[in-house]
Amino acid sequence: MTERKVLNKYFPPDYDPSKIPRLRRGDRRKQFNIRTMAPFNMRCNTCNGYIYKAKKFNSRMETAENVDYLGLRHYRFYIRCPLCCAEIIWRTDLESGDYVLESGAKRNFEALKTAEELEAKRQAEEEEELANNPMKLLEKRTDQSKQEMEMVEVIEDLKQLNQRQATMEADHVLLRQMWREEEAVKEAEKEADDALIKELLASKSEQVHLLPLEFGGENSSKPIRIPGS
């Protein structure tokens, strides 16, 4: 039974690596068939059909010539419109970290991308102006210092407010505790008074005297005990 993995190879005594024929490298622009996805929303120029981002395609990829950024290669992709089979071409753009649509379609407007580009452009112009204008740089530093002082004041105010609220909360707790104690004392006194009244009523019998219609007669008033008293 032969080995599945050959670990040792035989080299004859007359082995000469220079005599081994080398394979010729093909054209650097050789295209490869790969599976890719649309990098952005686009609209076909031929049929006006929309192609949405992340839609999968069978594409051809090649190395873009005469396009270089920091010695890195750019790649070009060829796809077919799913509606009219027109060819659409785009390539990578390493400088901006995005893709460039070369032909066959038109990229849809992207508000977020445009806003980011405008913000980056504004920041670059501001940095250039600060580098060329020392007074402008001094004004910016002064404004930053002023904003920092204002922020410190706001933070201090918030801290003081939190401390006051914490103190007020403690005071409220004490007041509630005192009020509860006073209510408990009043309730105890009321219960003691009620118990005393009941005790007095129970120990002393209440008598009611019925008077006759005419005073001074033979029938004098007699005490009558009320049942249950």
UniProtKB/TrEMBL annotation:
Coiled coil: 108-198
BP term (GO), one: generation of catalytic spliceosome for first transesterification step
GO cellular component, one term: U2-type catalytic step 1 spliceosome
Classification via InterPro entries: Saf4/Yju2, Yju2
UniProt KW keywords: Coiled coil, Metal-binding, mRNA processing, mRNA splicing, Nucleus, Spliceosome, Zinc
Function: Part of the spliceosome which catalyzes two sequential transesterification reactions, first the excision of the non-coding intron from pre-mRNA and then the ligation of the coding exons to form the mature mRNA. Plays a role in stabilizing the structure of the spliceosome catalytic core and docking of the branch helix into the active site, producing 5'-exon and lariat intron-3'-intermediates.
Quaternary structure annotation from Swiss-Prot or TrEMBL: Component of the spliceosome. Present in the activated B complex, the catalytically activated B* complex which catalyzes the branching, the catalytic step 1 C complex catalyzing the exon ligation, and the postcatalytic P complex containing the ligated exons (mRNA) and the excised lariat intron.
Protein name: Splicing factor YJU2
Species per Swiss-Prot/TrEMBL record: Schistosoma haematobium (Blood fluke)
